[in-house]
Specification:
This protein is mostly helical. The protein is built from eight helices and two strands, in the order βααααβαααα. It folds into two domains: 155 residues, no CATH class; 150 residues, no CATH class.
Length: 350
């Protein structure tokens, strides 16, 4: 299965609107210009970040994506330097300091935390729990950014109120695109976990079949059926994303396949291994007897066993072929649908 995450997709909510100065009680106090200088620096940082997010969703060129991430980091540094070089406004360092703390958080996430999240990406394929932990780590990172954004908004309002600046918030194209990216990511991750949970169990089932481990097959089969049913129930109540139900439908197709695999197909594989074991015992008993020791009853039982194992082999091979074909179909459908979903709903930005 193709890995969903080629890089970290975070959502920074800052600058959802642009601040305009409506009036100032004291025309000589340049508080509005001071606020604009900070806002402009943050907006330039966000533009570089959104270009990176857009490339992450729409491009398969890893070098390009990494280059844009480095540019985003460079713009964080530029933003930090720009605001650091601003002196406190009339001795008031509150707005400047609040902005710097948030920018430092962004820098930490794109450097120290980025390496950790990428490492998590590598291990997330090992189990559902690790994949869930990976997505939770991303969400925790997003939550930290959102809290930082709220602190900036509060500091901005307090600063404006203190210096008599009236603010008018307007939505911006950049802010709208960042907001849309966050919505798309949250929806995708919810559906993806339903798919991944069953897909991972299916991989475990394949491994158990290759090992001819009947006990493990039954354990995994039970879990797979349970997770498929649970996932289908979630999908039954999940609304389409902006009238687009394609991702949920692709997930439903996959989970329906996994449910059928658990309910009707996997038992055929278990049945074959049990018949194979029984036949091997029968054959060993037959081989242990010399020709003159074998009774007609022994011969009849052996011939019956041969017919049964031959029929079981045919059923086993056909079942495996059906499973492999179905497995390839649902995975290819999921990958194609996921790519199309991201192309449609992740905004383009350069």
């Amino acid at each position: 299965m193709k890995k969903r995450f080629t890089c970290t997709l975070l959502f920074i909510a800052i600058a959802l609107g642009v601040v305009k100065i409506a009036r100032a009680q004291d025309p000589q106090a340049d508080a509005g210009t001071y606020m604009t200088a900070i806002s402009t620096a943050e907006t330039d940082m966000n533009k570089a970040y959104m270009a990176y997010i857009s490339a992450s969703a729409h491009s398969s060129r890893k070098r390009k994506i990494e280059k844009l991430r480095n540019i985003a980091v460079d713009n964080i540094v530029i933003c930090q330097n720009t605001i650091t070089n601003l002196p406190p406004y009339k001795g008031d360092n509150s707005l400047r300091q609040s902005s710097l703390k948030f920018i430092q958080l962004c820098y930490k996430i794109f450097n120290d935390d980025y390496t950790h999240i990428v490492n998590m990406d590598d291990i997330a394929e090992r189990s559902y729990d690790e994949m869930q932990a990976y997505l939770l780590l991303e969400q925790a990172t997003n939550d930290s950014l959102e809290m930082g954004n709220k602190r900036i908004a509060a500091a901005e309002k307090a600063f404006a109120a203190k210096y008599g600046v009236t603010l008018i918030s307007e939505r911006t194209e950049l802010g709208d695109k960042m907001e849309a990216t966050g919505r798309e990511t949250r929806y995708h991750d919810k559906v993806y976990l339903l798919f991944y949970k069953c897909n991972w169990e299916d991989n475990q089932l394949t491994e158990a079949v290759n090992q001819k481990n009947v006990t493990k097959i039954e354990q995994v089969r039970s879990a797979l059926g349970k997770y498929a049913i649970e996932g289908l129930k979630v999908l039954d109540t999940l609304k389409a994303f902006d009238n687009d139900g394609s991702l949920a439908n692709a997930c439903r197709q996959a989970l329906s396949f996994y449910k059928t695999e658990a309910d009707t197909q996997a038992p055929k594989l278990t049945d074959y291994f049990m018949k194979e074991e029984a036949f091997n015992k029968l054959k060993a008993t037959m081989d242990a007897k010399s020709a003159d020791q074998r009774t007609q009853q022994d011969v009849d039982a052996y011939n019956k066993g041969v017919n049964e194992i031959n029929a079981a082999v045919n059923t086993y091979n056909q079942t495996n072929q059906d499973l492999n074909n179905g497995r390839n179909d649902v995975i290819n459908t999921w990958n194609a649908t996921e790519k199309q979903f991201m192309d449609i709903h992740t905004p383009y930005y350069k």
